[in-house]
Design the sequence.
């Protein structure tokens, strides 16, 4: 029996597991079963809380619903911080290692502010050739790779179809990319919809996608932060950063992380 806690960050939902003893080793098939919304708990991914090896407080391991391990998940990281506070706290601040680097977190009630890893591989004004069109887009790695496509009408975007084509495109082989569709809403505010790699569908929110979209928006509009980002689940997250020449540094992501329920699952 696997003991778990269900959480969500702005509608992006996760199964949280305390693996500080190191006795949980899930296969990709088991991960997919747990995340299955009809036969399992139902989640966009699984997060394991583990002992750190590099001087951080903890180690965060994140698995997408397809069973594949990913470098980072922003919404998951906020949930991870509150979960760590519940099972190993109390604490006001903590750090945890990920394949994308060490992430810092400050707990602010039900909100969590993350100090994100430095963005890299920023590419503005790229063109993605598809069978029926040329897609004007931008790219940045905000912990994981993200394409950002500015649009005028967010509601009419075929997020599943177009997002899947971008996610699988040879330009981003072999690992692929996430795809975000971004609309400017006003002064310092954007709205996005995201097709997530590993989930292989649109999700209600994607933390690294929020960061990527905000940074792209700041870069192409030459504006300062913070940038407010409205996600599909209805929440608004905030991305802060410092501008230094052509670089965006000291990136933060602030948003909710909520407990849903606890239980056990028969593997």
Sequence:
């Amino acid at each position: 029996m696997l003991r778990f806690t269900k959480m969500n960050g702005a509608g992006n939902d996760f199964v949280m597991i305390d693996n500080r003893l190191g006795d949980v080793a899930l296969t990709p098939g088991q991960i997919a079963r747990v995340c299955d919304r009809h036969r399992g708990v139902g989640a966009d991914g699984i997060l394991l809380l583990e002992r750190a090896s590099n001087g951080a407080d903890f180690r965060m391991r994140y698995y997408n619903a397809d069973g594949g391990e990913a470098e980072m998940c922003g919404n998951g990281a906020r949930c991870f911080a509150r979960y760590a506070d519940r099972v190993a706290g109390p604490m006001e601040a903590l750090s945890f290692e990920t394949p994308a680097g060490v992430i810092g977190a400050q707990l602010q009630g039900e909100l969590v502010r993350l100090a994100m890893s430095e963005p890299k591989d920023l590419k503005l004004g790229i063109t993605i050739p598809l069978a029926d069109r040329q897609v004007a887009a931008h790219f940045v790695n905000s912990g994981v790779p993200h394409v950002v496509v500015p649009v005028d009408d967010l509601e009419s975007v075929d997020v599943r179809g177009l997002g899947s084509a971008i996610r699988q495109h040879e330009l981003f082989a072999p690992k692929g990319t996430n795809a975000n569709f971004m609309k400017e809403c006003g002064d310092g505010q954007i709205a996005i919809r995201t097709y997530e790699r590993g989930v292989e569908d649109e999700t209600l929110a994607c933390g690294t996608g929020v960061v990527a979209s905000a940074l792209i928006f700041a870069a192409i509009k030459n504006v300062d932060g913070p940038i407010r980002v409205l996600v599909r689940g209805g929440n608004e997250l905030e991305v802060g950063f410092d501008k230094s020449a052509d670089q965006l540094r000291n990136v933060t992501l602030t948003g909710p992380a909520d407990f849903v329920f606890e239980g056990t699952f028969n593997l």
User: Anything to note?
Assistant: The first strand starts at residue 2 and ends at 9. The CA atoms of residues 110 and 216 lie 27 Å apart.
